[in-house]
# Entry
Amino acid sequence: MHLSKVLKIIIITLIFSSCGNSSKAIKSNFTIQSNAKKNIISNAEILELSILNPNNKGIDSVQYTLNNSLIPKQLNLKAISLGEKMIKATVFFEGKKEVALKKVIVVNSESPKLYSYELINTYPHDMTSYTQGLEFYNGILYESTGQYGESKLRALDYKKGKVLKNINLSTSYFGEGLTVLNDKIYQLTWREGRGLIYDVNKFEAIGSFNYGQSKEGWGLCNDGQKLYKTDGSENIWILNSSTLEEERFVQAYTNKGKLANLNELEWVEGKIYANRYQKNGVAIINPENGAIEAVIDFKDLKKKVTNHPGLDVLNGMAYNPETKTLFVTGKRWDKIFEVKIIPAQ
# Structure
């Protein structure tokens, strides 16, 4: 018999034997049941868990965990962050134990409010800037821009539309969001898995940091202690400002579901403002649980900028704590708009 025929026989035997083994999958004795309809429940409800035991096994005890933290079988969701949660039940029975899993999605109990705004001032802006991030620090407006070969870090005199300082990034970097904390500028890159660090006073690079589980860099802000980072999904990653390690994340959710494509971030009086890529709206997010509490529609602002072939979407927000106003622009917009946010009555 030729060697090639022997190999064919061995391969066919392996295929059929593997198919036979796959049909003998071990079935679990237990299933987690809950009061979450279609596995979705609001954070105003009590999550009730139980075990379905069709084989009438003698259960001694059941231990429930949510994302690896012990929970009771009746859990008040008020203090739980929103988003996808993995429930694990460890069932102890007849001297053995078995694990059952169930995914539950926790949504916000209230729909987002609609905020409006008042246009206060309009300032000139470099039409060539593919704006990714804006932030005020000690009265200076800092800007990060994107595109390979065009990415920059700038300090601006926004009233005159003048560039005070400029650093051109390596052509291998696509600049993204930025934030300034303790005299350090942190600037993200898109798909390079690295953030850049600068001395804000000397305006020069002093280091870098690598991303953790988040694969991309989109938006960045800080609350004076921690950094918050988006990666294009619904996740907002919380970074330790000393180590720059991703400690955890919250997920942005409304009462109906998640809000993905979160981009530029700005910290505004205890809330996170986030715009969605390719959208005209800005979401106001509770940083503790990810609840989208309100939205602002800025679509009319784009009508006020010069229309040209390179004109792109809304992007770039900076809150000025001195005036308590928000500065908004977009990619290749020739204007920056100063607005006052008006909460819903």
Observations:
- The longest strand covers residues 96-107.
